[in-house]
Amino acid sequence: MGGGVRYIDVAERRARLALRHRLAGRARAGTPEEVADALVALHGTDPATVYLAVGARLADPAVTVGETERALYEDRNLVRMHGMRHTVFVFPTALTAVVHASTGLAVAARERASLLKHMATAGAPDAAWLKDVEESTLAALARRGQATAAELAQDEPRLREQFVYAAGKSYEGTHTVSTRLLRVLGVEGKVVRGRPLGSWTSSRFRWAVAPEHAELDTAGAQAKLLGRWLTACGPATEADLKWWTGWRVTEVRRALAAAGAEAVSLDGDTGYVAAGDAGPVPVPGEPWAALLPGLDPTAMGWQQRDWYLAPELRPRLFDGSGNVGPTVWWNGRVVGGWAQRPDGEIVWRLLDEDGIGRDARAAIDSEAQRLAAWLGTTRITPRFRTPLERELSKD
Fold first, then answer.
1. DSSP for 111-172, written as a single string
2. N or C: more exposed end of the chain, with fewer CB within 10 A?
3. pTM
C-alpha cells in the first residue's frame, strides 16, 4: 500500500500480542479485571477456560480461582453473558451495555421469534402467556438473587411445561419452557449466568438478573466495541473483524469509519488499528512462554492466524468444528500443545521446533510447573477435545 500507510510486520504483531494480551513476563496482570479489560472478552463456553486464561496472565497465578470468583460473583466487576457470534463470554461489567447493543439485539430478536414459532407449531400457549411467565420468572429471580431453572420452577410452575420441537422430523425433540425462555432472556440481556452449583470447573450455572445498563444506539455501540477490540488485537483485517463480531461486512466498515480506525499494511493485506495506534510498540523484553487453554481468546482472536499459527499445526490442535485446544506458545507463536493427565501432571509436546533451543524448553517447562502448582488437585478436561490433547492426556 502507498500513501504513507505504515507496514506492520509479523514480529511487531507478535510484540503487540505479547504486551497487550498480558503474556510477556513484564506485562502480566495483577487482577482478573485487568486481564478481562485487556482482552475485551474471555471465552466462557468452557467454564474452566475463563480461569485458565486469567491464570496464564496473572503475575501471581495462585490467586486465580479466588480472585476470579470474587470478580464474577461478589464484586460483579465481570459478567458472564452472550456476546459476539452468539457465544458465551465473560466481559467487564462496564462493557455489557456496549456488547448488548452492538451484538445482542439482533440475535435476541431472532431467538424470541424462533421460540414463539416453535411453540405455535406445537400448539403451545401464545405470546401473551409466554410474556406472563417471563415477568413472573424475572420477579422470582429478583427475589431469590440467584437460582437454577429448577428452583425458579418452584415459584413459577409453568416453566416446567414442555412442547414438542420439529414433530415428525428426524431431529424431533421435547423442549422445556424454562430451557428455551431462560436462553432468550439471556441473549436479551435480562439475565446472566450466576455462581455455578459445583466448583469453578462446573458448567451447571445458576441464573441472576442482569446488571442494569443503558440502552445504547447500535451503530455507536459497534464503533465503541470495535475500537476497544482493535486496541487489544489490532492490526486486524476486515475478515478478522467480521468473524470475531459476527456482523455483516457493511456493519464492520461503518464501525471502522465511526471509530476512526487507521489502515496499515500487512503481508499482502490491509489491516486496521485503533485511532492513533499505528506507531511502533516497545520490545516485550525477555523471551516468553505460555500455556494457554482451549478456546483461549488469544488463540481464537483472529480468523486469519498464519502469523502466529502455522497451518500444518491446525489438524492436531483444533477439533472438527474449529475450536482450538490447549496450546504452547513461544515468543508470540504457537509451537505445540499441552494436556493434563489423570494424575495431575501437565505434559506438553512441540509441533514446531524451529528456533526452539534449551532456553525455550526450560521456559515452557517452567510454565507447565507453574500451571500444575496452582491447579493442585483440580483436574481439567477441555469441553472440546482435540487430537493432540487426547493423545497427551493418555500417555
1. HHHHHHHHHHHTT---HHHHHHHHHHHHHHHHHHSEE-HHHHHHH-GGGG-EEEESTTSTT-
2. C
3. 0.93
